[in-house]
Design goal:
By secondary structure, the protein is α+β, with helices and mostly antiparallel strands. Helix content is 49%, strand content 8%. It is built from 9 helices and 5 strands, in the order αααβαααββαββαα. The protein has a 5-stranded mixed β-sheet. Helix 4 packs across helix 5, helix 4 runs parallel beside helix 8 and helix 8 packs antiparallel against helix 9. The longest helix is centred in the middle third of the chain and has 28 residues. The two termini are 29 Å apart.
Length: 249
């Protein structure tokens, strides 16, 4: 079954949000303060500035082109940390095991010859490749709003980015806005709607925090004597699931 309208990253977190039926325990620190907005001159500039900032863990730069609430700033700040951890993990994982191993980590797996199932996790990342895809992704504009897809990150979806764009925009009027990055125009220019980057749920930030720790811990395993690729893969897939479940209840 293909994910037709969401990036792997968005679909993953939206699916998580759908499971969040009870409040998380504990409290979080105060969310990051708002910064002076610096609206972009175009939707393309707004989305590229925002996602470049995310890729660099640049919270101030992100908030400058985003329309946010305090809760959304908390979520986005945690998301930046998670993406930084993802990018660092990807770098070390590829250096140790190769690019094919990375792609296989995020691809839906078939059973091994011995019949044992292999767990898989769609691994999000936001580096030069994803930013280049975003720079070429079509943007639809209407009445002071604009929409585009986040970079393709679902390695289990075999369609090309062009095919995903075509399928998602073939009937734009009926397409759900949460499936896309949403940009809005005000008197000074264009801003990204922060709630379209990550699910606007108070439990999303703790999940991001937990996922960040899982990836940092798994990164430390890479290259250690006696630690295999399968052990690293198992640690991160199981750790991600645990990070989610712990923060659901």
């Amino acid at each position: 079954m293909h994910v037709t309208q969401r990036s792997g990253l968005q679909a993953f977190f939206v699916a998580i949000s759908a499971l969040l039926l009870t409040a998380c325990s504990g409290s979080r620190p105060e969310p990051p303060a708002a910064v002076e907005l610096q609206p972009a001159s175009s939707p393309r500039e707004a989305v590229m500035t925002a996602y470049t900032a995310i890729s660099q863990d640049n919270v101030v730069g992100l908030f400058a082109v985003c329309r946010t609430t305090p809760q959304q700033r908390d979520i986005l700040a945690a998301h930046c940390k998670t993406m930084a951890a993802c990018n660092d993990f990807r770098h070390d994982f590829i250096a140790a095991y190769g690019a094919k191993a990375w792609n296989d980590l995020g691809r839906r797996k078939k059973a091994k010859p011995d019949g044992k199932a292999v767990s898989s996790m769609q691994m999000p990342s936001l580096g030069a490749e994803e930013l280049a895809i975003l720079a070429a992704t079509p943007i639809e504009t209407r009445s002071g709003e604009a929409f585009c897809l986040a970079p393709k990150q679902d390695y289990g979806d075999e369609r090309s980015q062009e095919e995903i764009n075509r399928d998602s925009f073939h009937d734009f009027e009926k397409n759900d806005k949460p499936d896309k990055i949403h940009m809005v125009q005000d008197a000074n220019g264009w801003l990204v709607d922060g709630s379209s980057i990550m699910p606007d749920d108070r439990r999303t930030a703790p999940i991001c925090d937990a996922m960040t720790k899982v990836m940092r811990d798994a990164q430390q395993m890479i290259g250690k004597p006696g630690v295999t690729q399968d052990q690293v893969t198992s640690a991160i897939t199981k750790g991600m699931l645990k990070a989610v479940l712990i923060n659901i209840w």
